[in-house]
């Protein structure tokens, strides 16, 4: 059922009708599909608020910050049945970030389960692990990140930021244990922040 719902959401966002059983589709899906075909939307980010779906848009900032040229595209919010118009970049930056280190189990009472798949796992926090751009640095230090766009590799200045990352080990569908890891990443000082509102 989860796969069918996911396929429906993708096809709906692309305005492609797909056959499906009525009991698997959210209420009002036919109207939502037609609204997307007609270019309708409920809310838009600040870069597409005064534009129609399909129009060109621009996000201020460099590639590392999330800026560039794009197109306003309609996207369906699965949980609320809300259609959003957002500026989707033509050439989004790709960052080959490398972070290598051990995770720890969030719950010590689940340690035996976790060790069935990660034999050396513990439930004790470990020192933060830095990506290759913040290696040997601490949170708040300056860093230089490398990002890739169609034209090739570009370098930008940033700051090392520490945060707690999460992952999970799944034993059965809906049955898993959370894993934690403190990481330090090189991030832009002024990343693009989208603000959605009524058009």
Keywords:
flat, mainly beta, 3 helices, 199 residues, 35% strand, 2 domains, four-stranded mixed β-sheet, signal, five-stranded mixed β-sheet, disordered N terminus
What do these coordinates show?
By secondary structure, the chain is mainly β. The chain has two domains: 2-89, no CATH class; 104-187, no CATH class. Helix content is 13%, strand content 35%. The protein has three helices and nine strands, in the order ααβββββαββββ. It has helices spanning 2-13, 29-37, 111-115, and strands at residues 43-44, 56-59, 68-77, 82-89, 104-105, 129-130, 142-149, 152-172, 175-187. The strands form two sheets. Strands 5, 6, 7, 8 and 9 form a five-stranded mixed beta sheet that branches. A hairpin with an 8-residue loop joins strand 2 and strand 3. The longest helix is centred in the N-terminal third of the chain and has 12 residues, at 2-13. The two termini are 34 Å apart. The relative contact order is 0.17. The model is unreliable at 1-23 (pLDDT under 50).
Number of structural units classed as domains: 2
**What level of helicity do the residues show?**
10-25%
Q: How far from one another are the termini?
A: 34 Å
Whole-number average pLDDT? 86
Shape, per Cα inertia axes? flat
SSE succession: HHEEEEEHEEEE
- Tell me how many strands there are: 9
Query: DSSP helix count?
Result: 3
Structural class: mainly beta
- CA radius of gyration is 21 Å
Largest sheet: 5 strands, mixed
Pick out the low-confidence regions: 1-23
Question: How much of the polypeptide forms β-strand, as a percent range?
Answer: 35-45%
Signal peptide: 1-22
Keywords: Signal
